[in-house]
Fold:
Amino acid sequence: MNISLQRFLRHLYFLCQKELLSLFKDPRMRIQLVMPVIIEGFLFGYAANYNIEEVPYAVVDRSETSSARDFLAHVAGAPTFSCYAVCGNVQEVSTLIDAGEVLGGIIVPEDFEKKLEHGEPAPVQVITDGRNPMIASMVKSYVTEIAASWSEAKGFSRLPVSIETRTWFNPNQLSRWTFLPSFLAMIAFVQVMFLAGLSIAEEREQGTFDQLLVTPFSPTEILIGKATPPVIVGLFQAAMVFLIARFWFEVPFAGNLFTLLLTLFIFMVSTTGLGLSISSVAKNMQQVLVYLLVLMIPMVLLSGLVTPIHNMPEFLQIITYADPMRFVIDAVRRIYLEGAGLCDIAWDFVPMLAVAAVTMPLAGWLFRHKTT
Structure:
């Protein structure tokens, strides 16, 4: 092996050892690197859930007939619906919705049974809480499905066409199946950005930056040594989230572990370049935190984690091409749920590698500029 390469690898080893020791020698830092990941993994699995598991609702039965009671009993028998209150008028339902005690109300009109006997449509009013449009839409869809099944069971509706739906990759449409794979990328993104961003600024603030510069290490070796530990920590934290998703929440993994790790590694290299660039520019750790928050929030919002990218305005869709989170979330979801291989997600690598090709040399230039 070339002597210069041996020296480079030896220097890199010592620098990485120094950075990892500085991270893990403090018991509080060890807790900060492990416990938040575990807590957030469980929180995302349980709390970040768009599936409605319980729908408390109120009822106004103006018909008071056997058909109306049978229909309301059919609604109450649904697994997710629970009748919270029987009200005398719509104003009482409105009060309960305003207080957040129910998600909706079902109002059966006076002529409900009469219209059914004459073969006419018998509309039932469903009131939902529009302060959360997603939940309101889902409640309306659930009630519509229940009403359709009741009508068909009673022979009031005989549709010539039967629609059967099937959802690929997530048969039960569980939102945690979407969130937890995405959280692999997000936790790596947050931790890598913070660790890389604070690394150089922390040296300056502690007064050890000048001591580092007088060592036999070149600026490039110092930069690579600063970049490697955040990537290692990010992969470790992503592995913890993967274990929580796979074995605690039992989200089936359809892909290949090597493909998943390679995707996360490329993404972390690109985000490490961003963090080191910020750290090279900032004068202290407070500035780094401000810069990171200003940068990270738009990157998460534009990644497609919460809202689909195709729903964004066209100019924002163009901006998302500069966001590596957009492509890592797409790639991780496809690997985890679809079982996609390297060839299937190859185009997701291109923007991430492009960002890495820009940010890492930029971080190197800024670092050398600051040291001269």
Summary: The first strand starts at residue 55 and ends at 61. The domain at 55-154 is CATH 3.40.1710.10 (abc type-2 transporter like fold). The chain is about 65% helix and 5% strand.
